[in-house]
Design goal:
- There is one protein chain.
- With 291 residues, this protein is an alpha/beta fold.
- The chain has two domains: 7-98, 3-Layer(aba) Sandwich (Rossmann fold), CATH 3.40.50.10280; 106-255, Rossmann fold (3-Layer(aba) Sandwich), CATH 3.40.50.720.
- The chain has helices spanning 19-27, 44-52, 72-85, 103-115, 133-145, 156-169, 185-190, 209-212, 252-270, 280-289; strands at residues 7-12, 32-36, 63-68, 95-98, 124-128, 148-153, 175-179, 195-198, 220-223, 240-244, 247-250, 277-278.
- Bound molecules: NADP nicotinamide-adenine-dinucleotide phosphate.
- NADP nicotinamide-adenine-dinucleotide phosphate (NAP) binds next to helix 5 and helix 9.
Length: 291
Amino acid sequence: MSEKATILVQLDTDAQPSVFDRVVAVDAGVQHLFSYGGVSPQTVMPLVHGCIFTRGGKDLARTAIFIGGSDVTAGEAVLSEVKKHLIPQYGLSVSVMLDSNGSNTTAAAAVRAAGRHLDLSSAKSLVLGGTGPVGQRVARLLAKVGGHVRIGSRQKDRAEAVCAVIRAHIPGANIEAVSVSSSTDGPQALGDRNLVVAAGALGVVMLPKKLWTTAKALRVAIDLNGVPPAGIEGIELNDKGVERDGVISYGALGIGGTKMKVHKAAINKLFETNNAVLDIEEIYALALHLQ
Ligand SMILES: NC(=O)c1ccc[n+]([C@@H]2O[C@H](COP(=O)([O-])OP(=O)(O)OC[C@H]3O[C@@H](n4cnc5c(N)ncnc54)[C@H](OP(=O)(O)O)[C@@H]3O)[C@@H](O)[C@H]2O)c1
């Protein structure tokens, strides 16, 4: 008998399920996409039961769950609740992926790019916009790989809160919160850094050119903002390993191509088994194996 159609159940924590995530799911080859908005831990149980009590045996691998939305903390809470309602000891499980705001796939693509030029286990990094979904995941991955990571925010206590979350996942993580609110903060934060990743909000200049071109230890600069002006002034959207003023640079589209490949590969991975959980570490591992 032929295989059952693939079904991706999109659980979005925002009121409107992300169009971006829907388009990528279709382009990844998903045959049916069921999209739900406004999903919270309180509404998850029947959605998970609909996945695990319908198909059986190997057909369960043809159903999978994708968790998205603009808030990665809300997405993590939904993921945690989804796992509670799977019953793997009886084979009643489906694979699950978390990618709120593209945070995991974008962070995996960015860190993979940085790792092509630096030994990340010893590199010193600065993540600007480190309190957003993408920045948090970039910082967590860099901390996991082992280097020293600074997380920048206009409000240091927000960066401290992100550090606390990362330490809960990675005990002993070498991370530090820094303020980037005043004109003297920038040079201090960037001082001895080898890598800077700008994951600030759309169209916001996070790092002026005169700062990064005079940072002596800087080797790699990655800007993830796709809406001009650039988040790192002087870096172009399409930069992909281009050298500018002695620094290897990547722009949002230079990273975006890899991000799309990683996103599609992760969706396809969901349908290989009925028990995968794809969060940042698993998605990064997948990114490292892509051509
Ligand atoms: N290239 C790709 O493939 C790709 C994929 C997905 C996303 N992205 C891009 O990645 C970036 C990060 O996404 P996100 O969703 O994590 O961003 P976000 O939540 O909108 O913003 C990230 C952080 O930027 C800081 N920020 C906001 N407004 C600011 C302002 N006016 N001045 C200075 N800092 C400001 C805030 O940190 P504090 O308040 O703590 O300072 C915020 O937490 C975005 O530019 C997004 O478009 C790129």
